[in-house]
Sequence to fold (122 residues):
Amino acid sequence: LIEKRKRSGVKNGKQCTLKILRPSFQGTVSIEEIVRLVVSAMKNSGLAEAVQESPEEVLRRKRQQNNEAAARYRKRQREARNIAEGELEQLLRRNEDLRHTVERMQQEIADLKQAVLAGHTS
Fold:
């Protein structure tokens, strides 16, 4: 592996330098090497640092997440309901138009039958 250092700026009030590891591609990379790379990257990025939260803070954060998820769910349900209602209104209008078309065609058929019968009797 080839190691290269890159300046990444300030994190938590401290200057950070990230190590960028690139495979040299001189053969296969084992799973162990990949795991070491991931663990090293996690440690260097600070993501692996366990933040100590009080139980109250954890509970507050979980409730906040749950409230946000519930709000997203309600919004999706409301949007789906609005879409379904719009489709229903459109289908009801289409159904009414088709009923009027059927009535007009039945009347036209009745008129044509009467005209044909009237023409044969004359």
About this structure: Residues 52-115 form one domain. The CA atoms of residues 9 and 16 lie 6 Å apart.
